[in-house]
Amino acid sequence: MQKQKKCGPGTRAYREASKQLKSGQSMSINATDDCNYLFLIIHAGLGNRMLEITSAFLYALLTNRILLLDRYKEIADLFCEPFPGTSWLVPSDFPLNDDEFGQSSAESYGNMLQNKAFGGGTDRSLVGNRLPPYVYLHLDGNYGFHDKLFFCEDDQQFLRGVPWLVMRTDMYFVPSLFLVPAFQDELGRLFPEKDTVFHHLARYLFHPTNGVWYSVTRCFRSYLAKAEKRVGIQIRIYETKGILQRNGPFPHILNQILSCAQNEKLLPEISMAEGAADGTRNNRTAAGSGTRNNRTIAVLTTSLSAWYSEQIQEKYDEQSAVDGVSVRVFQPSHEEYQRSRNKGHNMKALAEIYLLSMTDVLITSGFSTFGYAAQGLAGLKPWIMLKSENHVTPDPPCVRAMSIEPCFHQAPFYDCKARKDTDLGKVVPYVRHCEDVSWGLKIVDQTHL
Ligand code: GDP
């Protein structure tokens, strides 16, 4: 990370660039030096944050920029600095305030295009050959047509010269970078196996702080290390049952988990024989049609609710597994509801993402970036539980993922060259629609299809 050292916080280059930014003055098109920056506004849940940081880092690599993260969002409580001898956190005297930016910001690229700030229409020719000191990129789920032009080659050409880019996103937009012709050669060199982008970048960038790592290793040693097989089940519920019962309990989701795990032979079938075990957790000898042997499957569940893992454990205690294997369920926490700005809560969430990534097979909940982060770190293609409708267990209860990559949920569908909407899931063989979000895009390696 030579460039981060040369241009990052504490360097003369950074001081000058932030002075220029503070002055608010436009710059001559010839005045840009080789220290350009990408400032990322961090927001949303932890899975989203990991996806947005990874996407921004890749974009910074491809466009030769220094990535700087918003420092006030507990990132330093969760992750160590990935770049030795420098920092990825923006200094506290950074002149821009992240709260100022949103869809209606005049400095957003989409609004600048709409307001003809560059000359006329969507023509990016510059007024008097002057570059704005910064451009804000609004790439959140609610972004509009003009914001999405970010993913077009001509727009990238223009943005290349802007010294500061401020980005706000809550998505994994990497699949659309693979569709920008100017980036394709470099991406091919960086990732000969295309579906390993998140896996490599996340393992390079995210190093949990000591407190988080302590919880991960303690739980792993105590509950997972000795098992013959480790099954991770990530349960994320988007349905509601009244205002207070966000996570259920929903029997149709419990049924979905058990059906998926048993149909796909990730967990043993439960014996339906009469007179199965006596229902006590400690009875681990003769039970039902099978005799318990010494083999144990450790199930790591993660959820905001404790109910699902309690039920799974109860089922395997009451009626033994047909092949006599012991199934032991462990859930590190049940926080009940999401609290994105709470340090302890986020530390638990990160520890659980890492623990899931240490399992041998994974079942995840579709649509959830928490699950995407775990599968990507693990390098595992999960079985994805699709969203249920009307409180009915979907059939099939889960599908196998095509790749280990996260899904880009609100991907654009505009063909920049033809200037019309098109199905971007059909343009190249390595960018397809996601299993869980039919309008989203994800990277697959065609050699694995
Ligand atoms: P997504 O909303 O499922 O895409 O995932 P995010 O990680 O972006 O946001 C969900 C947030 O809710 C997490 O970051 C946690 O704060 C919390 N959360 C959701 N599921 C779990 C879980 O299984 N365990 C813990 N500890 N927290 C969770």
List the helices and strands and how they pair.
Blueprint: H1 2-7, H2 12-23, E1 27-28, E2 36-41, H3 46-62, E3 65-69, H4 75-78, H5 109-114, E4 130-131, E5 134-139, H6 145-148, H7 153-159, E6 164-169, H8 174-177, H9 181-190, H10 197-205, H11 210-224, E7 229-234, H12 251-263, E8 286-287, E9 290-291, E10 296-302, H13 307-318, E11 326-330, H14 343-357, E12 361-365, H15 369-378, E13 383-385, E14 398-400, E15 414-415, E16 420-421, E17 431-433, E18 441-443
Parallel strand pairs: 2-3, 2-6, 5-6, 7-10, 7-12, 10-11, 12-13
Antiparallel strand pairs: 1-4, 8-9, 13-14, 15-16, 17-18
Helix pairs in contact: 3-10, 3-15, 10-15, 11-14, 14-15
The structure holds guanosine-5'-diphosphate.
Question: Strands across the major sheet, in which order?
Answer: 11-10-7-12-13-14
Task: Tell the overall outline.
Answer: globular
Gap between N and C termini: 34 Å
**Please, how many helices?**
15
What's the count of strands? 18
Structural class: alpha/beta
Mean pLDDT rating? 89
Fold-level CATH name of the largest domain:
Rossmann fold
CATH architecture of the largest domain: 3-Layer(aba) Sandwich
Strand content: 15-25%
Biggest sheet descriptor: 6 strands, mixed
Membrane topology: Single-pass type II membrane protein
Protein name: Fucosyltransferase
Keywords: Cell wall biogenesis/degradation, Glycoprotein, Glycosyltransferase, Golgi apparatus, Transferase
Enzyme class: transferase
